[in-house]
Amino acid sequence: MAALSGPVDSDRLDAGLNALGRLGFEVVTAPNIRQRHGLFAGSDTERLEGFYELVDDPSVKAIFFTRGGWGLNRLLPRLDWRRVVRHPRAYLGYSDLTPLLNGIVTRAGLVTFHGPMVAADLARGLTPAEQESLLQALAGSYPQSFEVRACEQGQPVEGVLLGGCLSLLVSLLGTPWEVDLEGAVLFIEDLNEPPYRLDRMLTHLRLSGTLTKIKALIVGYLHGEGGKEPTAMDGEITLEMVLDALARDFPWPLAKGLEAGHASPSLTLPLGLNARLDPPAGRLWVCP
Questions:
Q1: Whole-model pTM?
Q2: For burial by CB atoms within 10 Å, which of 189, 230, 241, 243 has the most?
């Protein structure tokens, strides 16, 4: 288990570690997982070196992360991608881990997982559906399907599933670590962003030309644990207006309602596998 982003609460970390143990995992931890250095779980060097201790160990079959927050982007210029993928394994996380997960897919052609983090999701306790989704994903039990709601009916489309936290994807635009989304089925989610900020980020993707390259857009949670969709003040745009505009302005299908992101239940998604969105059936299929 690694900590590349924010510091963790010790009680939540212990609860998550116990949950991993009950699932049958033998846990090996990076030395910095309980450190606190301002906003981060240790200095940039400590977080990266702790991560490399796990990366360099061929006996480690999966690397979970403690939590998201902020900090991964600071490490990107120092990240040795060849070292990260030398020993193929499962990498699981989301939120701040979005650049790492997509980078491993696009740079090495490996599959990563938009899945639970230890001091967050595992600490609160996975629902039965979340636990089954996680274990099936790690076991390679495919094909799998996920329920979605299509904004506009259209023909089924296929592409490689990529994406994650919208704000992190936007933060990479114009950098050497920008995610190549050519031909992708793009999945997005985020945490408690008001509609105008979501519109601003999606407009950024539009202006960059990114949205002309994708095959479909899948929207997960855009709210937090409270379970409420982001709301707008009087006179402001709404989330439905933002999504409806995208559905009208682009030829690809847009679907929402995927149970994945910063809320529960959050199902484990395999980034890098082929995905087929079937709007009439309201299903997203993923398979090798």
A1: 0.95
A2: 189
Is 178 designated active site? no
pLDDT in tens, 34-45: 999 999 999 999
Strands across the sheet containing 144-147: 144-147, 283-287, 274-278, 157-165, 184-189, 216-219, 254-256, 149-150
Examine the residue annotation and report whether 114 is marked as an active-site residue of this protein.
Answer: no
The catalytic position among 130, 189, 193, 259 is 189
How far CA 29 is from CA of 25, 39, 170, in Å, comes to: 12, 20, 31
Q: What is the pLDDT of residues 226-272, one digit of tens each?
A: 445 566 555 678 888 999 999 899 999 999 999 999 999 999 999 99
Smallest Cα–Cα separation from 73: which of 1, 173, 154, 156?
173
**262 is known as an active-site residue:** yes
Domains of the chain: 10-125 (3.40.50.10740), 144-287 (3.50.30.60)
Cα–Cα distance measured from residue 65 to residue 88, given in angstroms and rounded to the nearest whole number: 17
Overall size of the chain counted in residues = 288
Q: Which of these, 72, 116, 122, lies nearest to 90 by C-alpha position?
A: 116
Alpha-carbon separation of residue 138 from 63, 144, 287 (angstroms): 11, 12, 13
